[in-house]
Amino acid sequence: MTPRQSKRIKRWSACGAICVIALVAGAVVDMTIEDFHLSGTQIGDAKQQYFFDSWDCSSCHGYFDQTNEPWFTWKGSLMGNAGRDPLFLAQLATANQDVANVGYFCLRCHVPMSFVTGHAYQPDGSTLDDLDKDGVNCHFCHSMVDPIYKPGVSPSIDQTILNALVDVPAYYGNAMFVLDPFGRRRGPYTDAFPPHVAIPSPFHRTGDFCGTCHDVGNAAITKLPDGTYQYNTINERTPNEDPHSQFPLERTYTEWKLSSFANGGVDMGGRFGGQGATVVNSCQDCHMPKVTAQGCYFGPTRTDIARHDFAGASAWVLEIIGLHYQNDGNVDQDAILDGRAKAVDMLERAASLEVEQQCGALRVRVINESGHKLPTGHIEGRRVWLNVKMFDASDALLAEYGHYDSAEAHLDEATTPIYEMKIGLSEQAAQLTGYPAGETTHMSLADIIVKDTRIPPRGFNNAAFEAGGAPVVATTYADGQYWDDAWFALPEDCARAEVTVNYQTVTRHYIEALRDGNYTDNWGDILHNLWMQTGKGPPIPMVNLEPATAAFVRGDMDCDSDVDFDDLNIFLSALLNDAAPEQAKALADLSLDAKADANDIQGFAEALIQGG
User: How would DSSP label each residue in 345-404?
Assistant: First the structure.
């Protein structure tokens, strides 16, 4: 027994029933599968003999139109490769080290066929077979039943299926899926006549369908009435299956559900949705754009085929999947390249920019054009930030904010806003686990949100988002705000600027944490090697503007083209008052170090003397 394990035993044994440490497995918390039991289809409910892998579907739904057919487009998506994702497998290893059996919960979303094969019982994923690795496959999605029965809407047979379950889900989220136990396939059309049973299902066109896996709360950590979170008693199910009552790990569905997109739709002018109507409403409108095509090689041409792109932000993850499985015949390299290109295209449409000069400062507005937070999804590693470069008339670089060093994979975080979510451990959680309090990479143990500065979607409301477990933390957004304004000081002689919004899937810190923290398998090392081979997960430019800039008077704080005592008052307020307007702070930043402080006093004094 190590000294650290001995300390943990004392801490957890002193706090009651929840305090048990796994010494044999080495996990920080010795939870059981019972802790992660959730309503819906359980292992054994859906018989494996009725579920096929995607190759069976390809005979009718593939090899006739790579651009639009379900088979090829799905193969290049992260859905189609979820069971092979090296990033997930590295995360799975460290999560199981922290919390025994948490992998049983993780696999439910990422490798859902493991609940058909039964291989989820091995939470480290070591028994996953080819059917499991088929990812979120065709048969899985197309045998899903709406867990909340809607008379007159849901297929009547679904009531029988739900009645047969021991526990019926009352919420969409946490992969509380219900499968047709006989694998009877469902889809959105009433006039399809394939050579297998086909049940029309309105559920498959709704955002609720996607919410099944894209709202995730830690089922072992419960929200208390005061808004804080507490670990559950070990070997007991969550007292509340509502994901909003659990510590938030992903709230994409909730973010969308509370946005204007889900509440009437938004006319995006063709930015999303494919051909046809410009108003987008559901998840599918953006991530399964409509095209005129055939869904089956012998089926009719339809004007509303939902292309199975499932494009999100994971271009880099698809890249490492293609690299790691380059000799695996089950991974289609052409489809991966196509899927990666679609992910980049989605990123390029997810944000827009506005840039305006106000005397000696540049206002940069980043607008969230998506139906959820920017960025959204998995909370660890993902970030969006601004890079702003200032040039003189001869194109010499005068100043840069948000510089990214590609060789070191290092971002100058102090000089630019970063839109991201970070989680941490409370003092109590730190005492129980032995890990330091504050920001952490131990996601399965986290019980506090340290930061969430991600830009909200249209229709944002602070109270509603906080109640849904998607609060704003460490910044401020007004109700209705779906953009962020950042201010940057201009250097003298600036003639033009280059402004870029960048997205990155993983940071160096996170990749190294997954590598260095892994003592059970080699997925951390594999992931790190893939990261190195792909340029260290470089940022992807989302949108770029290159505005010209006009001459200005240095030190002019009130933008009246001179420097006088009125400007002095504003300057001093910017230095001494944390609540001063961001514009004033930028105008006071005469040293161009992205902050208004004592380093700017001499520069302002010189400007004041010259102005006088």
Answer: HHHHHSEEEEEEEETTEEEEEEEE-SSS-BS-SS-SS-EEEEEEEEE-TT--EEEEES-E
Our count of domains for the chain comes to 3
Rg (CA), the chain: 26
Per the document, the length of the chain is 612
In contact, 326 and 337? CB cutoff 8 Å: no
Tokens representing residue 24 in the block:
């044999």
- pLDDT at position 462 over 60: yes
Confirm whether 151 is domain-assigned: yes
Same domain, 583 and 538: no
163 and 106 fall within a common domain:
yes
Residue 184 and residue 37 in one domain: yes
- For residue 612, the model assigns a pLDDT of 60
The answer to whether position 578 is within a domain reads yes
Same domain, residue pair 465 and 580: no
Owning domain of residue 573: 565-611
State pLDDT tens for residues 410-456. Answer: 999 999 999 999 999 999 999 999 999 999 999 999 999 999 999 99
Structure tokens at 214: 């894209």
Q: What is the C-alpha separation between 407 and 508, in angstroms, rounded?
A: 11
Residue 360 phi, psi (nearest 5): -90, 20
pTM for the structure as a whole: 0.95
Same domain, 437 and 379: yes
pLDDT tens figures, 385-418: 999 999 999 999 999 999 999 999 999 999 999 9
Left (φ > 0), alpha (ψ -120 to 50) or beta: where does 16 sit?
Answer: left
Neighbours of 452 (CB within 10 A): 22
